[in-house]
Design goal:
Length: 204
């Protein structure tokens, strides 16, 4: 969703939740998160897993420089040594190659994902090696533009929710998802806001 849509969704959530309204007054509106739909974004999600944003960006740039065509078939022409030299760990090389093979052979239909229901699109991505629920939902939110998803496993979201809602303890994934249901159908916007709130709100 673009900035105007993000603001609209957050205003609607704030109208129903005074704590969200207070949070918006405190830290303001976040910037939107939009990623292109396709193989490269799926691969970038793998690259970004469990490392810092800066490290992921550096590795991503080196990997992308290896195959200017930027598609699955071209990626499969790269050797493991090439990918390891660019900074990918052995497991991530394995996961990226499995992704490329799934896309190149049609096992994962990139073209079909936008027309699938949220759960079906998420499950199709989760069927790939290296993609858990968090990774699949991140793709659905920011590459497919799904407006009502909430990656409850995200620790930053859990901590931001604890601060925003004044909880004694950080909620686990199940509890965070249950609490986020009150924000439906604006959960994607609220996820973006909570990441913003996590970085900008005082700890308590």
């Amino acid at each position: 969703m673009d900035k105007a849509q993000l603001i609209d969704h957050l205003d609607k959530a704030a109208a129903r939740d005074s704590q969200v309204a207070a949070g918006l007054d405190l830290v303001g509106y976040p910037e939107p998160r939009i990623s292109p739909h396709g193989f490269s974004t799926l691969m970038n999600i793998i690259i970004s897993q469990q490392i810092s944003r800066d490290a992921a960006g550096a590795i991503r740039a080196r990997v992308e420089a290896l195959y200017p065509a930027n598609d699955a078939a071209a990626f499969l022409d790269l050797s493991e040594d090439d990918l390891r030299g660019a900074g990918l760990s052995r497991p991530k090389v394995k996961y990226c190659r499995a992704l490329a093979e799934a896309v190149a052979t049609g096992t994962l239909s990139i073209e079909a994902l936008p027309s699938m229901q949220d759960d079906d699109a998420r499950d199709a991505i989760m069927a790939l090696k290296g993609f858990g629920r968090w990774s699949a939902e991140i793709y659905c939110m920011f590459a497919l533009g799904r407006p009502d998803m909430f990656p409850g496993e995200d620790i930053a979201l859990q901590e931001a929710m604890r601060r925003l809602k004044g909880l004694e303890e950080r909620p686990d994934a199940k509890t965070a998802r249950a609490l986020a249901e009150a924000w439906s159908p604006h959960r994607t916007a609220m996820s973006v806001f909570l990441w913003h709130y996590y970085r900008g709100a005082p700890q308590n």
